[in-house]
Design brief:
The chain is an alpha+beta fold. It is 20% helix and 22% strand. It has one domain. The protein is built from three helices and four strands, in the order E-H-H-E-E-E-H. Strands 1-2-4-3 form a four-stranded mixed beta sheet, with no helix packed on it.
Length: 92
């Protein structure tokens, strides 16, 4: 299994810099994008590559980024957060 993780600092900006070409070359089973700022990074705005299930967590505040996760196999379950009260202060 090949996993790729990338802090893109804005998925639309990364798209303009060749994100889709990189994803095609990487041939990864899982691709995780952090700081995606995905408010307007829907399939209508960016033509996501085929062959992946797309999920993630939207940004929680204006100045923070969200995540986008591409997987070759559909996840059985998706859960946001760590589940650790000490880390989040919320318990998950």
């Amino acid at each position: 299994m090949k996993l790729v993780s990338w802090n893109v600092n804005g998925v639309r900006a990364a798209h303009k810099k060749g994100l889709l070409d990189y994803m095609a070359q990487a041939q990864a089973d899982v691709i995780c994008l952090q700081e995606a700022k995905r408010t307007r990074a829907t399939p209508q705005h960016i033509p996501w590559p085929g062959g992946y299930e797309v999920t993630g967590t939207p940004r929680s505040r204006r100045a923070t980024g969200g995540t986008i996760v591409f997987t070759r196999v559909k996840p059985l379950k998706w859960r946001s957060g760590s589940g650790c009260r000490r880390m989040t202060g919320k318990g998950g």
